[in-house]
Design goal:
Oligomer: heterodimer
Strand content of chain A: 35-45%
CATH class of chain A: Mainly Beta
Distance between the termini of chain B: 61 Å
CATH topology of chain A: Lipocalin
Structural class of chain B: alpha/beta
Number of domains of chain A: 1
Shape of chain B: globular
Number of helices of chain B: 14
CATH architecture of chain A: Beta Barrel
Helix content of chain A: 10-25%
Strand content of chain B: 15-25%
CATH topology of the largest domain in chain B: Dihydrodipicolinate Reductase, domain 2
Strand order of the largest sheet of chain A: 1-4-5-7-8-9-10-13
CATH class of the largest domain in chain B: Alpha Beta
Shape of chain A: elongated
CATH superfamily of chain A: Lipid/polyisoprenoid-binding, YceI-like
Radius of gyration of chain B: 24 Å
Order of helices and strands of chain B: HHEHEHEHEHEHEHEHHHEEEEEEEEHHHE
Helix content of chain B: 25-40%
Largest interface: A-B, 50 and 60 residues
Distance between the termini of chain A: 39 Å
Number of domains of chain B: 2
Structural class of chain A: alpha+beta
Radius of gyration of chain A: 23 Å
Order of helices and strands of chain A: HEEEEHEEHEEEEEEE
CATH architecture of the largest domain in chain B: 2-Layer Sandwich
Number of strands of chain B: 16
């Protein structure tokens, strides 16, 4: 049996359609999505010990950066509401696989890497993760679009322990609709319930310092995926 | 924030300072490089910091396990099995041999391992992550190619194959399959003692390299007993000229490779001589061989091997204008010429007398650790790990890191971007635990098989540079 469409039903259908378009505008179709791109990503963790300083490096930073469309066209970012506290901040999620971090020492690298993985409880927490909660433009951005400096706040999870961190982040626009975000942050291992490694040797033990500095360069490119 | 159990304790060992570390540098480096960084207690509670009562931490620094499958359970396969069982991270979960008695013997060493008579069934076992191929050399090709196709990491015994065509096919497949970690069974290249010597030799300590001489002397038949004529033929494949790489291919390859490695040279020609002097039991493979390799610039290597005499055992000598270096039984000595420039540390080094020559002991992590010692051979510590242990350890660690690198990359980036993945893996490869890959395995196999060919024909063979390339 064929159903007749009444004016009230038509109105309801129109309202539903309009609502759908509005929701899509807000959350999907009108959001730019940048995803992590290989080549150029770098993370270093620098620390100290009673005998020498040490550095661990990685070249994999995954994740995505989602922001409103004006971000791409307005290089000064003046009209980008989410970067001025007038709209929810960009949706940014980042991760670093713990196994991709490698010590730069020449002798005993593998042993040091394993100690680091164990200290970071990598079996249970294979990734360092970060979720942005706030991102505001710090200084006016040049017409070229680079560099742009932001004050950020986010949830950093290391070894399964989450802490809120504040950090200044610099963004540069690269060719091919790519962006490079960089920054550094001093952290304490113990804030993440990590006991600074203190390996025993024949003559005593070497003690690593609690404080480390993390530096990163994260490359993302505009996603072409639908 | 202060952690529990981190308070200084009266009886705790001292913190090592920068000054002490530099003073006792060798010991510290040795400890960092290989000594277990362990303490008491356990880390069962993953939310608790892993620290001991004295301030030192309990991190074990242990590489995660990689499940291994062994293909070929003959005497050498069982040696590999024994070695794997000594490692904490190399569980052998499957073994394979076409001969039931060999499988049974393997089961006594790896009772938990699943047994297979067909290697393809072992390769289909999803628990197996890496395979160790210890079958006769002429059977390597199909097994290794299928293993690579099955995306299993491969440890292939040396020589890679019994002929150059098969060795090339194996090396090419290993090179092209970036997701597989391939290691050639040239265990010297993973042995810390020999690695230490290789670094030392590459400093140019020899002066102008003049020549090398190597020997393998062991009175043994090389013949294995078997219950049936068919089985006898199978197990004594080394004695059959048609399929055997011969003494120089099976044993000499490990010694010849040292020269290629230390001097970074490839031989340009080899002249061989072979005879049957001791074991005239119907075998067709010579038991007494000499091969003279020619290298660019007039450097020669004389290789001698016999199964007819044990006198003077195994020996590797490298002669240069400033000194000669002798390597035997994983120990090395340097014999300086009277007009050689002094290196500075010889005065404190341990020395041993060899007839009329004085040898300065070269041992990894040793010379500077115990200064002013006055030399008794018994005082030189032996490396507790065997070369095979180093080699399998490297295979497990590199295989784990290789698969972790692939997993890390594909989880963060477009997994279909194989060029970027290859670039990343090439970067990661620079951080491998030292171990020979397909390139070193192929190069050594070519040199050894060419020498075997020369020995078999009592002739001189030119080795074209192109034969070392995979094409």
């Amino acid at each position: 049996m064929r159903t007749r469409t009444t004016p009230t039903t038509k109105l309801k259908l129109w309202l539903a359609f309009a609502l759908t378009v509005w929701v899509c505008d807000l959350f999907g179709a009108e959001t730019l999505r940048y995803v992590a791109k290989p080549g150029g990503a770098k993370v270093t963790i620098e620390g100290t010990s009673t005998v020498h300083d040490w550095i661990t490096e990685g070249k994999i930073i995954g994740g995505s950066f989602e922001v409103e469309p004006s971000f791409r066209t307005d290089l000064t970012l003046k009209s980008v509401q989410s970067l001025h506290g007038k709209a929810p901040p960009p949706n940014v999620e980042v991760f670093i696989p713990v196994t991709s971090l490698k010590s730069t020492v020449l002798a005993g690298r593998e042993k040091m890497d394993e100690v680091m993985r164990e200290a970071m409880r990598a079996t249970e927490n294979p990734r360092i993760t970060y979720k942005l909660t706030s991102m505001t433009l710090k200084d006016p951005v040049p017409e070229s679009g680079s560099p742009a400096k932001f004050n950020t706040k986010g949830q950093l999870q290391v070894a399964g322990v989450t802490n809120t961190i504040e950090m200044e982040v610099t963004m540069e626009r690269l060719e091919g609709d790519r962006l490079k975000f960089s920054g550094k942050k001093a952290l304490k291992m113990t804030d993440f319930k990590i006991a600074p490694p203190a390996p025993r040797l024949a003559m005593g033990f070497i003690k690593t310092g609690d404080e480390v500095t993390i530096r990163f360069e994260w490359i993302v490119g505009l996603s072409t995926a639908p | 924030m202060k952690l529990p159990n981190q308070t200084a304790h009266d009886s705790c060992p001292p913190e090592v300072t920068r000054r002490e570390f530099i003073k006792d540098g060798s010991v510290a480096i040795l400890a960092l490089a290989g000594a277990p960084l362990t303490g008491t207690g356990n880390t069962a509670d993953t939310n608790a910091p892993a620290s001991g009562t004295d301030g030192a931490t309990d991190y074990k620094g242990q590489s995660p396990p990689v499940n291994l499958g062994l293909i070929g359970c003959g005497p050498w396969g069982r040696e590999l099995l024994k070695t794997a069982s000594m490692l904490p991270n190399a569980p052998v979960v499957a073994v394979c041999d076409t001969y039931p008695a060999a499988l049974k013997r393997a089961a006594t060493l790896a009772p938990e391992a699943k047994q297979y008579e067909n290697y393809r069934d072992l390769l289909a076992d999803s628990k197996v992550e890496g395979v160790v191929v210890a079958t006769p050399s002429h059977m390597h090709r199909d097994i290794v190619l299928d293993a690579i196709k099955a995306r299993k990491h491969v440890y292939c015994e040396a020589p890679l194959a019994a002929n150059i065509e098969d060795a090339r096919a194996i090396a090419k497949a290993a090179k092209e399959t970036v997701k597989v970690n391939f290691q050639a069974g040239l265990q010297n290249r993973a042995d810390r003692q020999v690695l230490n010597l290789a670094s030392f030799m590459r400093t140019g300590v020899l002066g102008r390299p003049i020549k090398s001489r190597q020997q393998y002397h062991k009175k043994q038949s090389w013949r294995a007993a078997a219950p049936t004529p068919e089985r006898q033929k199978e197990v004594n494949w080394r004695l059959d000229q048609a399929i055997s790489p011969g003494l120089v291919g099976e044993i000499g390859i490990h010694q010849i490779d040292l020269v290629n490695w230390f001097f970074m040279l490839r031989p340009t020609a080899v002249t061989g001589f072979g005879s049957l002097r001791q074991w005239r039991d119907g075998r067709t493979v010579p038991d007494n061989v000499v091969a003279i390799f020619e290298y660019p610039g007039g450097l020669f290597l004389t290789y001698e091997a016999t199964l007819g005499s044990s006198f003077d055992g195994e020996l590797n000598l490298f002669f240069g204008s400033d000194c000669a270096v002798m390597l035997r039984d994983r120990r090395a000595w340097m014999f300086q010429e009277i007009d050689a420039p002094q290196l500075g540390w010889e005065i404190n080094a341990i020395k041993e007398q060899f007839y009329k020559s004085t040898g300065i002991v070269l041992a990894a992590g040793y010379s500077k650790a115990m200064p002013n010692q006055t030399a008794k051979p018994a005082e030189v510590p032996q490396d507790p790990k065997s070369p095979l242990q180093y080699a399998l350890e490297a295979f497990v660690i590199n295989s784990y890191n290789h698969q972790a690198a692939i997993r890390d990359f594909t989880s963060a980036y477009d997994p279909s971007d194989t060029n970027a993945l290859k670039q990343y893996l090439d970067e990661i490869a620079k951080m491998r635990v030292p171990a020979p890959g397909w390139a070193e395995g192929y190069e050594a196999t070519v040199a050894a098989l060419k020498a075997n060919q020369a020995v078999a024909g009592n002739q001189r063979i030119t080795i074209e540079p192109a034969v070392f390339e995979l094409g």
